[in-house]
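S1.2 Input.
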Amino acid sequence: MKLPKELSLHEIAALCGGRVARGGDTRVKAVAVDPMSAGEGELALVFDPKLARRISECRAEAVVVPPDVKTDLPSVVVERPLLALARMLKAVSPRRFLPEPGVHPAAVVDPTCELGADVAIGPMVVIGPHTKIGRGTTIMAGCIIGGAVTIGEDCHLHPGCLVADYVQIGDRVILQQGASLGSDGFGYVTERPSNMERRLAGIAELSREPNPLVKIPQIGTVVLEDDVEIGSNATIARATMGATTIGKGSKIDNLVMVAHNARVGREVIVVSLSGIAGSCVLGDRSIIAGHVGIKDHLKVGADSIVEGMAGVMRDVPEGEVVTGIPAVNAREHFTNLAHVRKLPRLADELKALKKKVAELEALVQQRPLVSSGDHADN
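S1.3 Output.
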């Protein structure tokens, strides 16, 4: 990645919050994508431990390394490599093509809307009545925003976002392209007991008569607190009553589903393809890895981790790490897996033991019985 201009290691250190270890006046013009392929004039970011062990092979002009990596190359040392990377990329990121402040002529904005200073609204945006948009917010092409929506300051809605009526969005919120907020929660009821209810009640006889699903009105809303980010094509459903809430600083990845009345705490991470069922509670700083499914009305405790592809069927205690289907404590899960892998050998051993027992039984049956009287005669 070419830098906007040549930078010295002193300047690199200032950008990423590191310190120069050697060669502060060394200048670089690009950041290498692959540290081991870096060459003259390029800066290599050697953060991966496997690459760090091969740093003597690196031919970069200079490197950025964590404190435990030793090198003779001109270098900058950083305590938290990924944080340093984030700062550097933010400083050198290329210009994005954003709409200018004001309302694009091809946008449709209801006259009752309230727009703060320096709001930028791109082409083909539609905004409904009585919506309020805070200062410095950018709404890119093709977004559709309903009525009575509140959007805070310095938010960024990427192209194609859908925000339904009455949704409330805090400050500095980012919606990636195609994010959907406020679709109806999934709620239906039948006028007569359904076959599922009959099964649960222990009734064996099932009905074949029509029993239409009646939609339960979803009259609640969605609330995103400050500094939330919602990924591309993620869906946050509105509550049946009250609000589906995403707490301050939480990050929701692409293609995540958060169902009605779920409550996501502060600084929570939910990774792509996960589904959070209705009325679940995710505690502060919990981490939900990719492709996780969480059953409705469950609580995932603060600071807990749900590993990828887990199926959560019961509450997760605070600070617990769980995995598997159904999800259990990770240590217990992997212990169980180790036992399962031993089953073929144990089965062979069991067959051998059964064969041995059968042989011993045959020997016992072939030997004549000695009566107590025989012992007495002797």
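S1.4 Remarks. The first strand starts at residue 2 and ends at 8.
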